[in-house]
Amino acid sequence: MAADVSIIGLYILDILGRPVRRIPDRGGVDFIEEIRLTVAGTAGGTVVDCAKLRLECLAAGAVGDDEKADWMLMQMQKHGIDVSAMQRISGVPTSATILNIRPNGDRPALHVRGAPDHFDVRPKQYDVVLDAPIIHLGGTGLLRTLDGASSLALLREAKARGKTVTFDLIAANTDTAKMVLPLLPFIDFFMPSIEEAQAMSGWDSPDDCARYYIDHGATACCFTLGGDGAYYAHRDGARFTIPAYELDVVDTTGCGDAFDAGMIAAIHHGMDAETSVRFAQAAAGLVATGLGSDAGIISFEHTLHCMKTWKVRS
Questions:
Q1: Which one of 123, 222, 252, 284 counts the least CB within 10 Å of its CB?
Q2: Do residues 89 and 62 touch, judged by C-beta distance below 8 A?
Q3: Distance of CA 33 to the CA centre of its chain
């Protein structure tokens, strides 16, 4: 069966624990409530959430040839994800992050880069990775080989084939902008956080940031605003902000990835722009209610119910 979406880019194993109030001195031990392993990253977190939202998904990224890769591939297959386009690279570790989730939600991280730095998509692979109607590239900024000319060729080909392209990144700064700006004419939905949008553009307000990216070629911008909700702008002049839902937040790890998955599912189902952003906000909100980038999301129908019934912040 052909995939509904191809999720290309950064795949990471997250190891999360909460609540971490302190790191014990010397060889001491503290007891916490919960530890989880999750498939994460701007592609990995998104593909799992898309699968939970009942989309047929192709995963395209890189892992090492180690026990972390075994677990990640097994976990994705449990969700029904096609992992045939995942690359296993010998001699480098699977990318992984240790996240210490503090009681206030802060999440200091220790990260190993590893296999994603060696991931690339060659033209001979385009027929496989660009077969789905929606193409998501996630993780620009931590994809050393794919970033730059290779990403540009990939997205240019995706648009030449008539695909809808969604895009997110990670750890954005002014240097990241040099890689991102050439990609924008081939991106239909540009979906960074507002902090990332500000860091790359030099502008402050969502309106000004959106104008900057649309002037450089993006069709639409969807910025996540944390507790302030989400902002949408389209080159046709549409502009609106959707407030956040009232929730008891446990952990915000992966909320941006869940927002991406929600938008992808909304696009797949043909939702209008405002409903799409509301649905994406519901997906992100569900993830915030538990530990890890795949927490909270049960199904498309459950997420739709939450979107319709949750209260929004005043």
A1: 123
A2: yes
A3: 26
Kindly give, in sequence order, each residue whose CB lies less than 8 Å from that of residue 100, ignoring residues fewer than 6 positions away: 17, 20, 23, 107, 108, 109
Is the Cβ–Cβ distance between 256 and 224 less than 8 Å? Answer: yes
Is the backbone of residue 217 left (phi > 0), alpha (psi -120 to 50) or beta?
left
CA atoms 261, 263, 269, 275: torsion sign: positive
Give the Cα separation of 8 and 136 in Å (integer). Answer: 6
* Owner of token pair 């690339």: 120
Q: Count CA within 13 A, CB hemisphere, residue 202.
A: 4
CA quadruple 140, 274, 249, 198: dihedral positive or negative? positive
So what's the pLDDT on residue 249?
A: 84
Q: What is the pLDDT of residues 211-261, one digit of tens each?
A: 999 999 999 999 999 889 999 999 999 999 999 999 888 877 888 999 999
Residue 184: helix, strand or coil by DSSP?
helix
Q: What are the tens digits of pLDDT across the range 53-63?
A: 999 999 999 99
Find the angle CA(272)-CA(193)-CA(146) to the nearest 5 degrees.
100
Q: pTM here?
A: 0.94
Q: Are 258 and 297 in contact (CB under 8 A)?
A: yes
